[in-house]
Every structure is written in structure tokens, then in C-alpha cells.
Design brief:
The chain has four helices and five strands; from the N terminus they run αβααββββα. The chain is of the alpha+beta class and 111 residues long.
């Protein structure tokens, strides 16, 4: 049988691309934030901490960029009182289990 008429078997069947297995391309800020979220485990990381870790004051934009790349991240707004006695709702983040798996399967980190 020639190549044009070869039967599709398990060995030569076309494979769908594995989105989760594709290495992620992260900029240094995204990489630092992703690593920090992984190290936090089930713990929450405040938005201010994300800003410090990233080295920029745009933590939510970095989180959004990671989400667009398939990293699943929880966000929670918490009712607090700021230093002036005013109510505020600061945000905090943590990786979902699926987000952790995406980062590990992208070959960025050895676990």
C-alpha cells in the first residue's frame, strides 16, 4: 500500500494537538508570578504581593495574561477596612489544581 492510500491505524492516525502539553511562553514577570502561586499551594496571594513579585504594579494584567495562556487561577475579593477606616475589597489569587497541572505539564517547572 502506498503512502497516499495508507489506512489510518493507531500508529499513523493524525493526532489532535495537546494544548495542555504545549510549552508555555511566559515573560519574566509571568514566570515569577506563576512560580509564586505554585509555591503558595492552596494558600492565597494578595494582589499587592503579586505586584511586588512581578516587579510591577499591574498584577491583575499579569494574572489575565496567565489565564489567557490556559493557567486556571481563582480570584477572591475580601471585605476589609483600609488604614483610613474605609471599607475596601482587595483581591487575592491562588492556582486551581488545573492551573498547577498546566504549569507542570508545560515543562516550566520540575515537581
Amino acid at each position: 500500500m502506498d503512502k497516499k492510500n495508507a489506512a489510518h491505524t493507531e500508529a499513523n492516525a493524525p493526532q489532535a494537538p495537546c494544548v495542555e502539553c504545549k510549552p508555555l511562553k511566559l515573560c519574566p514577570r509571568q514566570l515569577r508570578v506563576a512560580l509564586a502561586l505554585m509555591l503558595a499551594g492552596d494558600g492565597w496571594t494578595w494582589r499587592e504581593e503579586i505586584d511586588r513579585i512581578a516587579g510591577a504594579s499591574n498584577g491583575p494584567a499579569i494574572i489575565s495574561a496567565l489565564r489567557r495562556k490556559g493557567v486556571k487561577i481563582d480570584m477572591q475579593k475580601v471585605k476589609r477596612i483600609d488604614r483610613d477606616g474605609k471599607p475596601c475589597n482587595p483581591g487575592r489569587y491562588r492556582l486551581k489544581q488545573k492551573g498547577f497541572a498546566v504549569l507542570v505539564s508545560s515543562y516550566l517547572f520540575d515537581v
